[in-house]
Amino acid sequence: MRKTSCTYIDRLVILVALLTLPATGVGPITVSAQERTPTEQTASLLYRPPAEVPAGPLGEQALRGQLIDSKKTSCGQLELLAGIIVSTGILADVPPTISRLTGLPIDELEARETAACQQVAGEAPDEEKTTIELLNEANTVRWLVQIHLGAMDYVLMGKPTYRPIAAEGCFAAFFKMHNLNVQAMRQGYRALASDPTLDNGQALAAFWTGVLQPHAAAEDATMWDLARSVGDPNLTRSVNLVEAEHATIDEAIAAYMKTLAAVEAGRAEPSALIPVAQDARIRTELHFGKEEITVVRPMQERLSNEEFRPVMEAFDREIGDWLKERGWSMEGCA
Prior knowledge:
Layout: H1 8-20, H2 38-46, H3 60-87, H4 94-102, H5 106-117, H6 131-157, H7 169-194, H8 198-228, H9 233-264, H10 273-302, H11 305-324
């Protein structure tokens, strides 16, 4: 196993320090609003969409070029993630979380990153590696990006910062209800990921079927038609897109329930529930965010408390007991 001269945390700190060092001897520079800063110029190159590979047979040399470019892109993403990990104050938590989630020691993860992203003395450059070696390294770096993002998500779930509710009456009740859903979903997922047992798997299933799906039923019964009645074509388009996401969330829950049935029958280990639970959770959180920004906030600007009340009454009928057990109420809305 390859070992490096500095630890994972050391490299993150060094990287961010280098990225934030001012240029020696350069004083403050005033830049006009129209003039792009060097950072913006670099960003415009980094974030260009990738060129599409032409249709037809792909020669060996062209494939190798694609793999080398893919590696470089993913390695750059790892560097960017390192800076975010430090700047968000989760540096102490992420490396041990990565190790725990993957079952691999940090030095082995570091060695894999070094082999794929750095030119180590005595080893062949990318241009001299076999296509299989390039493919394996490209896959490794993509996996490293994925597990860094997964660990960051896992750590930040434990320290949730919800957006301000900035609402009154029935609209405030809606956002508080969403917060309670997110909180319960994250707690259930963390319990399963930390301790993959049948009991924890069944507890999360109870949330999907007993809370989240009735929540969606209340929206389907009331909110979409009310939003469309506003008569704003932009709002209607947003409603159509967000409403369609209920089907994809239902598919994710169905996949979870199918996996749970296999676990209950002894055909799968409880750990098999973790990736499907993560998929359902992420889909749901993204859906909640889009729904709030593109549908509920515009409705808040156009509808009165009384006009929005039927939506909250539907939620109260579907999941009101569950919500009230967690301190929610219709006060100010009823």
